Amino acid sequence: MNPHVILRVVAKMLIPLIALFAFYVQFHGDFGPGGGFQAGVIFASSIILYALIFGMAAAKKAMPPSWVRIGMSLGVLLYGGTGVATWLLGGNFLDYTRFAPESTHAAGQHWGIFSVELGVLCTVACAMLAIFYAFGSRVQDLSDEDW
Amino acid sequence: MSSISHILPSWVLTHGPALLVVLPLLMAVLVALLPSKNTGAEKIAWMAVLSTAIICAFIAFGILGQVVSHGPVKYAMGGWEPPIGIGYYIDALSAPILLLITLIAVLCTLYALPSVVAEIEPKKRSPFYAAFLVSFAGLLGMVATGDAFNVFVFLEVSSLSTYVLVAMGASRDRRALTSAYKYLMMGSIGATFFVIGIGFLYMQTGTLNMMDIARILQDVGPDSRVVKLAFVFIVVGLGLKLAMFPLHTWLPGAYAYAPSFVTAFLAATATKAALYLLLRFGFTVFDPSWTFISKFFMYLLAGAGILGMLIASLQAIFQNDIRRVLAFSSVAQVGYMLLGIGMTTTLGLTAGYLHMLNHAMMKGALFLAVGAFWYRFGITQVSDMRGLGKTMPLTMAGFTIAGLSLIGVPGTAGFVSKLALVRAAAENGWWWAVGVIVVTSILAIIYIGRLIEQAYFQPAPKQGAATVAKNEAPMIMLIPLWILALSALVFGIDAEWTTGLAEAAAHVLEGGPILNTPPLSGGH
Amino acid sequence: MIDFFAHYNYIVVVILMMTGLYVVFASSNMIKKLVGLSLFQTSVFLLYITLGKVTGGKPPIVDPSEFKNDHGGGHEVAQATHEAATAAHDTAQVIYSNPLPHVLILTAIVVGVATLAIGLALVVRTRETYGTIEEDEIDGLDYCTNLEGHTGS
C-alpha cells in the first residue's frame, strides 16, 4: 500500500478545483479582483501540486515541457497580436475601442482586455511551470548530503 | 535624413515609437519558438534579429528626422492620452540615443553570426538571439517611454535579459557565471532603488507621466523632503546601472566574460541608455535650478566623474585581460560624460552628450576587435597580443584607430568631444578639471599604448619553426568593426552632424522641466 | 511616539529594506544573498501598497447595487463629498482606495520573480561548475585560474 495514499486522494480531488478556481479568477477579472497573472499562478500551482505528489515524470506527461515552451510564447503572441490587430483596425497600439467602435458600453475594451488577459494567463502559467521544471528536473543530480 | 523619412510609410512613422518596442519583443518570441535542435534554426534566428534591427534603425532614423524638423514625437499607448495612459515621448534628447542603439544593434548582429557559432553551444543559440532581442527592446523602451514606471519595467526587461546574455559566456570562461551573478545583484539593487524613487515621486505627485510629474513638482517646490528623497534614490539607482564611479564594480566582470558581441553591444548602448535616463530625470523631470539638484550635479556627479576618470584609468593600466582594460576604460569614460553633465552649462552638456555618442562608436569597435582576436587566436591576455599587427593587420588597424580615438588624438571623434569638454571646463573656470582631463588622457595613452605596442612592436609568436601565419578575421566581422572605426574617424574630421545632435540635446536639457502637453500627433 | 504608530508601516518597510540590504552585503552564500535581495524587493512592494491606501477607502470595485442607487437618487452624495476631495469621480461618489499602486507592484512582483529565477539558475550553474556556492571559495578557485593565466574550462 502506498504510504501517501491520503495525500494522493486529497490531491486528486483538489487539483481540478484549483484549476477551476484559476479559470474563475481569470474570467471574473472583468468584474472583480482577478486577472491573468493571478489565474496563471493558480493554474500553474495546480500542476506543480500534481508534480509534487505524483512525481515529475507524471507531471511532464500531463503537461509536456515542449507545450510549456510553446505556451509561454503563445501568450506573448496573443498579447502582442491584440495590439497588432488594433493597429490593423486603424487605432493606436492596444487601442481596444477599435474592436467595437460603435459600442456604447465599451464592448471593445472588454474584448481587448479579455484577449490580453488570456495571453497573460498562458504566459504566466507556462513561465511558472518552466521555472519549476527547470529547477525540479535537476534534483536527481544531488544527493542528500550535498545540502 | 529627411529622405529616409520619405521612404518610410507615414503609418510607420506615426506608430514608430510603439513599433520600435513591439517589433523586437514579438520577434524575440518568434525566435524563441524556433526548434533548437537543427542548425538551420540559428541562421533563421540570426536573419530575424538582423532584419528587426535594420527595420528599427530605419524607424529610429525616421523619428530622428521628424524630431529635428517638427519637434518631439508623442504616442499614446492604447489610445489613452497621458497622463492617464502611458505616453511615449521622443525628443531631441532621446532620438539620437534610439538611433545609436539600433545602429549598434545592426552592426553587432552582423558580427554575431560567426562569433556566436564560436562562443555559444548549438542548442542555446536561438534562445540566445531571443534574449538579445528582448534586451534590445528593453533598451529602446527605456529611451522611448515618457512614463516613469514604464521606464522601470523596460529597465528590468533589458537588465534581466542582459544577465542571461552575460551568463552565456560561461561556455567560454566559467567566470561569466559569477560575473553575471554579481551584475544581477547590483543591477537588481539599482533597479529597486530606482523604483523606490519613482514610488516617492508618485507619493508626492500622484502621477507617473514624466511631464505631469514635472508640472506638479513645479508647484510642490524644492523644499519637500519626499522630492529630495525621490531624487537621491533615482540617482543612486541609475548610478548603479550606468556604472558611476564607486558603483561600477559589476562592470569589469560583466564586460570581460560576456560573449564578445554582447560585450560590444552592452558597452556601446546599455550604460548610455542609463545615462540618458539620468539626464531625463535630472534635468527634465526635476528642476536643475533647484539648489539641492544643482549642488548635487556640481559636487557629487562631477566629483564622481573626476574620481572615476583618475582611478579607473589607473586600474586599466594594471589589468592583464584586454577586455578588463577596456572595461575599466569604460568606467573612466563614463566619468568624462558625468563631468560634462556636472557642469550643467550648455557647453558642458553638449560635450558630455557628444562624448556619449562618440564613446559608443569607439568602444564598440574596440570590443568587436578584441572579439575577433579571440575568434582567431583565442587571445584574452594583453601579453598574447604580440605580433597581431602582422597576423591580423586589418582587425588591428581598426582597433588602433578606435584606440587612438579613445586617447583623443586630433582627427578622431574622441578628440572632438574631449576638446569640447576642455573648453566647457575652461569656460566654467574649472582649470583643475582641465588638468584631470589631460592627466587621464596620458593614462589612456599608457593603457591603450600598451596594447598597440604589443601588437606592432613585438614579434609574432613562433609555432614550431615558423611564425604564426596571417589569419585575418572573416569579412562579416571586419565590416562592422571597420564601419565603427571609420565613423570614429569621420566624426572626428567632420563633427558637424554629431555636434548638432548634441547641441539639440543640450538645448532640451537647458530648457529645464518639460511641462507642456500639446495635443498628440499619433493615432487619431 | 504618536508619530511612530502613525507611520508604523513605513517603519516596517525600512526595517525590511535594511535587513535585506544587510543580508545581501554581509553574507557570502549566494542563496542567502538572493534571499536578502528578495526581502529588499518585498519592502518596496509594501511601500507601494502603503501608497495606495486612501483613508476610509473601499476596495476599488464598483458595486452594482450602489451603481443603481447613484442613477436613481444619489442620497449618499452629500455625505460622501465633504470627506472626499480626492474622489473626483462623478458617477460613484464613494471613496475608493487607489488601485494603481497595486497594479504597479504586481509588475514589480513579476520582475522580482524573474530576478529570483535567473539568480537561482545562476547559482545552480555555479554550483555545477565550481562545486560550491560560497563566494569566497569561488574567489579562491578563480584566483588559481587567474594566476595560471588560462581561461577556465
Secondary structure blueprint with pairings:
The complex is a heterotrimer of chains A (147), B (524) and C (153).
Chain A: H1 5-27, H2 36-54, H3 56-62, H4 65-88, H5 107-136
Chain B: H1 2-7, H2 10-14, H3 16-33, H4 40-70, E1 73-76, E2 87-90, H5 95-119, H6 125-144, H7 148-167, H8 175-205, H9 210-220, H10 225-241, H11 250-257, H12 260-285, H13 291-317, H14 322-343, H15 346-377, H16 388-391, H17 393-407, H18 413-428, H19 431-457, E3 462-463, E4 466-467, H20 475-493, H21 496-510
Antiparallel strand pairs in B: 1-2, 3-4
Chain C: H1 2-6, H2 8-26, H3 30-52, H4 64-72, H5 77-81, H6 100-130, H7 135-148
Helix pairs in contact in C: 2-3, 3-6
Please tell me how large the radius of gyration of chain C is. 25 Å
What CATH calls the topology of the largest domain in chain C is Helix Hairpins
Largest interface: B-C, 33 and 35 residues
Structural class of chain C: mainly alpha
Number of helices in the DSSP assignment of chain A: 5
How many domains comprise the coordinates of chain A? 1
Number of helices of chain C: 7
In N-to-C order, the SSE pattern of chain C is HHHHHHH
Mean of all residue-level pLDDT scores of chain C: 77
Name the assembly state. Answer: heterotrimer
Helix/strand/pairing category of chain A: mainly alpha
Beta-strand level of the residues of chain C, as a percent range?
Answer: under 5%
